[in-house]
Amino acid sequence: MSAIRFVPVALLLVLTGAPVFAQDSGGSSPRQGRGPSEFALRSAGDFTFIQSRPTGAFADNIGLGYGVNAAYLYQLDRDGILSLRADLGFLGYGHESKRVPLSSTIGGRIQVRVSTTNYIVPVSIGPQLTWPTGNVRPYVNGGFGGQFFYTQSSIDGNNGSTTDFSTTNQHDQTHAWVAGGGVYVPIHSRKVNVMLDAGVQYFTDGRAQYLRPGSIIDLPDAQIQINPLESDTHMLVVRLGVRVGAARR
Questions:
Q1: Which of 1-15, 49-63, 68-82 has the lowest mean pLDDT?
Q2: Higher confidence at residue 5 or residue 52?
Q3: 11: helix, coil or strand?
Q4: Alpha-carbon distance 125 to 145, whole Å?
Q5: How many Cα atoms within 13 Å fall on the side-chain side of residue 55?
Q6: In degrees rounded to 5, what are phi and psi of residue 36?
Q7: Contacts of 119 (CB under 8 A, 6+ apart)
Q8: What pLDDT digit, counting tens, does each position of 162-218 carry?
Q9: What is the domain range of residue 60?
Q10: Domain holding 112: CATH number?
């Protein structure tokens, strides 16, 4: 099994195995319908806006990226000091568009806009340590993951309407070691715990091919020339959003 394929498989094992663990840790007495299950109490979702900041040679080739990230956390102890965390992000780091005739046969009377966007999908899984009390709760995390790169072109109508025509021009992937940290700030704690989450993660050890605006050159006779870049893909991901979970009574 490749390193990249290990990440979604490990996440699947976490999601399927956690309910069994939660059932065993809750004792043998049946629930009486008096609130969330132990599994729900130990689970939390994290939803953040993210900015990617390439470093080293990667920063020489591309600029900042923007997108969103979702994470699932399962507390391995009742207080939430040690958790298992899985992250999935989606961000774009470059975009270009131009207006062209729909067909050389029809001529220039029907125009469409061809848009090309470069994407990164960072994923990771690993442990997280959290200080579980107080108005500011720092945490650190680490683990293993990967970065998926792809560039996609699509057609938009001249009036702004979208179509189903799209092509993936290039794609690549690489493994990565991940380390990060941040702080939680509680903002609501009744039936649902809501905390502000501000943090960072650093992806290192990966190398891949990718494109940037200008990497695709249109040639005569509807041909294209793709000039991929290749380098280490070290990057810092800055996050700001909320963590949401059930509250213990």
A1: 1-15
A2: 52
A3: helix
A4: 6
A5: 10
A6: -65, 155
A7: 90, 91, 92, 93, 149, 150, 151, 152
A8: 556 889 999 999 999 999 999 999 999 888 999 999 999 999 998 999 999 999 998
A9: 3-25+34-246
A10: 2.40.160.20
Task: Read off the amino acid at residue 229.
Answer: L
Q: Is 41 helix (H, G, I), strand (E, B) or coil?
A: helix
| C-alpha closest to that of 122 among 93, 152, 148 | 148
Paired tokens of 193? 């715990």
Domain count, the chain: 1
Q: What confidence score (pLDDT) does residue 222 get?
A: 76
List b or e across 28-67, with b for residues whose CB sees 16 or more CB atoms inside 10 angstroms: eeeeeeeebebbebbbbebebebbbbbeeebeebbeebeb
User: Per mean pLDDT, which range of 6-20, 60-74, 105-119, 151-165 is the poorest?
Assistant: 6-20
Q: Taking the chain, what is the end-to-end CA distance rounded to the nearest angstrom?
A: 43
Q: Average of pLDDT values for 125-147?
A: 97
